[in-house]
Each structure stands twice: as C-alpha cells, then as structure tokens.
Amino acid sequence: DFENAEGNFGLANALLTHLSQKLPISRWQRDLTDSTVLRNMGVALGYAVLGLDSLAKGLDKLETNEAALAADLDSAWEVMAEAVQTVMRRHGLPEPYEQLKAFTRGQPMTRDLMLGFVQNLALPEADKARLLAMTPGSYTGLAAALARGV
Q1: DSSP state of 94
Q2: Number of compact structural domains in the chain
Q3: Are residues 52 and 94 in the same domain?
Q4: CA separation, residue 94 to residues 15, 34, 79 (Å)
Q5: Residue 84 near residue 38, CB atoms below 8 Å
Q6: At what angle do helices 96-104 and 80-90 cross, to 10 degrees?
C-alpha cells in the first residue's frame, strides 16, 4: 500500500509541477496549449486521491508495539537536555548547553550520567528534585502546545 501511495504521489507531483510551470507562462505568451494542459488537472488530482487512499490503507494495517516504543524512549536521556538547560537558564547558570556538552562529551548519554550532572548543579533543591524525578517518558516540554498549534 505504501509503495502504491508513493507511485501515485510521484505521478501527481510530476503532473502538478508541470501545470505550475506551464500555465503561468502560457498565459503570458497567449499560448493556446493551456486548454490541453488544464484537461489533465483532474488526472493529477486523481493520482493524489489514489495516493491518499493507498496511504490510509497502509496506515490502517500498522500496529504499534507500545512496550518497545516506551523502552526506546526511556533509554533516550538526550531528551532531558532541554529541561535541564531551561532550568539552568532560569536560574542564571552560565552557558548551560556548553556545560552539558562538556560533561557528556565522548560518552553515551545515560540515566546515571544525566542524574549525576543534575545533582552537581547549583540549583534550588525543589528544581533539582523535579529534574531528578523526570524521565524521558514523563518529560514532554512544549510538545503538547506545539502539536495543538499545528
């Protein structure tokens, strides 16, 4: 289904690109070929509709492995860098990005590494405790607000 969608989108894209390049020029030059080109507008849009239909069928067949996704997310401690740097900036700590980069350079980002970095920061205990309690799975940052704005 995804391959069919890709093929149909490719054809729709090619035809619509041709229309977008051909029609403005033929209008300026009083070219009479635009009626032939315009007759194929439905063909281009038809390919787009077929592509969307195939894509929807393919998406309906997908199944998510929520346990694997959660495990993958919980091992991605890089996600927490945004939260840590934001709190550091709020409290006026110098160069949050550079500090975190220097602390983690040459090492994979792990839970222990991130928690060790946070524990050594000169932050109020309440903010430090909040950061230490967060996990990549529980931290969403601005994701919800950004998603609503789409």
Answers
A1: S
A2: 2
A3: no
A4: 54, 62, 21
A5: no
A6: 140
Q: Assess whether pLDDT exceeds 80 at residue 135.
A: yes
Does 131 reside within a domain? yes
Instruction: Measure the CA–CA gap between 114 and 120, rounded to whole angstroms.
Output: 10
Local structure of residue 34 (DSSP, 8 states): H
Give 38's pLDDT tier (boundaries 50, 70, 90).
Answer: confident
Q: Which helix (H) or strand (E) holds 74?
A: helix 66-74
Cα dihedral: 115, 119, 120, 124 (round 10): 140
Same-domain status, 74 and 40 = no
CA-closest candidate to residue 119, choices 111, 128, 110 = 128
- pLDDT tens for 71-118 read 998 889 998 999 999 999 999 999 999 999 998 888 889 999 999 999
pLDDT of residue 39: 85
